[in-house]
Design brief:
Structural class: alpha+beta
Number of helices: 7
Strand order of the largest sheet: 9-10-11-15-14-13-12
Distance between the termini: 19 Å
Number of strands: 15
Largest sheet: 7 strands, antiparallel
Radius of gyration: 30 Å
Length: 309
């Protein structure tokens, strides 16, 4: 799995000091006022540092050796209001510079997004067929697995596919360990072949029992009527169900579906496989467009068949 590196935000300490040329407190003596902005830390790379300007004595330079931003004015006997106005303008300019530095950091591409790599580079090959690799979900992969709300699951996938990021609002991260609505566990995709997602639904959404087998929840038709929108991304009509089968894998029962979904957001062809374990129903969804389905139907069905909890 790919883990994004933590970035340290830009922080500054603003200090001010007044130095006098004489120990005397008389107002007639010259004095120097300075305003300094000290960077605590910066996530910008060293390659960007030479490009960052800093303000010194009212002028902007590009020296990379200076780590201190300072704005200084010497007033002497000049008009006090004029000196204060100058310092105010220089202070605003320095604050603007902080904003520039922060925006440069904010617009850097996240490491996790930059490393969207093929799964074949980090997942083990499937022993009986080297044209696939094996994904085995563990507690480090999703919030629900860490919370114990989902039992580990696995499936095979072509090595050229890539794992994609699940948005926080869809991941269930904000509601674990007690989510009331389904969430997305993981997502994979290949531009030429299709998409995969694992959807988890709390059992309380489907039945009033604390734990239940998928047969106790209801028929395959009843289950897909409740979870169909999480397959298609919008709605599912009963006439879009092409085929439904029930399979046993060990002690676990699975409902399998083939769907023709011309209006689905996920794709015009959807395959789904569902089972219940613990307090959760796990729904495995394989989606494809017409073009992807024609080219990869056999592969997509092999992926679906491999899924187990």
């Amino acid at each position: 799995m790919v883990t994004a590196a933590a970035a340290t935000p830009v922080s500054y300490i603003i200090t001010s000091s007044t130095a006098s040329n004489s120990p005397s407190s008389s107002r007639s003596h010259n004095h120097t006022s300075s305003l300094k902005l000290l960077p605590i830390s910066s996530p910008l790379s060293s390659s960007l540092e030479p490009q960052l300007p800093f303000i010194s004595n009212g002028s902007v330079t590009n020296s990379s050796s200076t780590k201190l931003l300072s704005v200084s004015t010497r007033n002497g006997n000049a008009n006090q209001d004029t000196g204060m106005e100058r310092r105010r303008r220089e202070f605003i300019a320095a604050i603007g510079l902080i904003s520039i530095n922060f925006n440069l950091w904010l617009n850097q591409k996240p490491i996790a997004d930059a490393r969207e790599i093929e799964v074949g580079s980090f997942l083990p090959p499937f022993p009986s067929d080297p044209s696939f690799v094996v994904f085995k979900a563990s507690s480090k992969d999703t919030p629900a697995l860490r919370a114990g709300n989902v039992q580990p699951y696995n499936f095979i996938i072509p090595p050229s596919w890539k794992q994609t990021r699940v948005a926080n609002i869809l991941s269930g991260n904000y509601c674990q360990p007690k989510c009331a609505e389904p969430w997305v566990e993981v997502k994979f995709e290949n531009e030429k072949q299709g998409k995969i997602q694992v959807v988890a639904s709390p059992l309380v959404r489907l039945t009033n029992k604390l734990t239940a087998t998928i047969e106790e929840i209801g028929t395959p038709e009843k289950l897909i009527a409740s979870l169909g929108p999480f397959v298609t991304g919008n709605t599912l009509d009963s006439d879009e169900i092409v085929e439904t089968t029930v399979e046993k894998q060990g002690d676990q029962t699975y409902y399998k579906y083939e769907l023709e979904t011309p209006f689905a957001l996920t794709g015009t062809h959807n395959l789904a496989k569902a089972t219940a374990k613990g307090n959760t129903v796990i729904l495995f969804v394989v989606s494809a467009s017409d073009k992807q389905w024609q080219a990869s139907q056999k592969t997509l069905k092999a992926i679906l068949d491999s899924f187990e909890v």
